[in-house]
Amino acid sequence: MKQLLSFDGVNAGYGAARVLHNLNLDVAEGDRVALIGRNGVGKTTLVNSLLGVASVRAGRVSINGRVQGRPRPYRAANQGVMIVPQGRRIVANLSVEENLRLGAAVKRPGPWHLDSVYRLFPILEERAHTPGTALSGGQQQMLAIGRAMMANPSLMILDEPTDGLAPVIVDLLADSLNQLADQGTALLLVEQNLSLVARVTRRYYALDKGTVVAEGAVDADDIESLKRHVTI
């Protein structure tokens, strides 16, 4: 099975501060992977190392088997990796539809386009000409995911997608992510909401103090066993 993303002995951080320590992680085609852990253990730093926000000091980050020199978000997108960042980062002064069309800028072929995204998230079509930042938090999360889908990624990375969302919206996101995965997109879900982890992912990595301390299959019937990794 083709490896889409690999972290091999990665040390990364900000300025003089090192956050990730000898981190190893792999996501292959069709994978549904969760990255779990308490606040402040380095989960978002892993995402930021792909965006070029955090500096990789040692080790290798590979996308589709290609070692990345100096990671940049557009390079990841061009290679089929789309990131839905924490906080959604909806572009102000652009409508919902204009925000969605930004995701199509990489021009990758695939099943996701405006009509298919609107079928998945009908509220986005209803509010297509509304400023993206005027949507509710849950609707903005749908927009952020829809924008990433428009790039037809082979891998989507979502950083804390349920942060601040009501349970009914979390349920909708779970259904949407499962539909996305069923279409063949691999998922790396950076998340503390174990209900979503159980419903969407099949295996996990647990992070503590910037390194992987546990990994294995996600057992939806025994999700309680993972709570020790996310309890503050």
What does this structure look like?
The chain is α/β, with parallel strands linked by helices and about 230 residues long. It has one domain (about 30-55, about 70-230): Rossmann fold (3-Layer(aba) Sandwich), CATH 3.40.50. It is about 30% helix and about 30% strand. It is built from 8 helices and 10 strands. It has helices at about 45-50, 75-80, 95-105, 115-120, 120-125, 135-150, 165-180, 195-200, and strands at about 5-15, 15-30, 30-35, 55-65, 65, 80-85, 155-160, 185-190, 205-210, 210-215. A 6-stranded mixed β-sheet has the order 6-7-8-3-9-10, sandwiched between helices. The protein has a 4-stranded antiparallel β-sheet with strand order 2-1-4-5, with helices on one face. Strand 4 (about 55-65) and strand 5 form a beta hairpin. Helix 3 (about 95-105) runs parallel beside helix 6 (about 135-150). The chain is globular and about 45 Å long. The model has no long low-confidence stretch (mean pLDDT about 90).
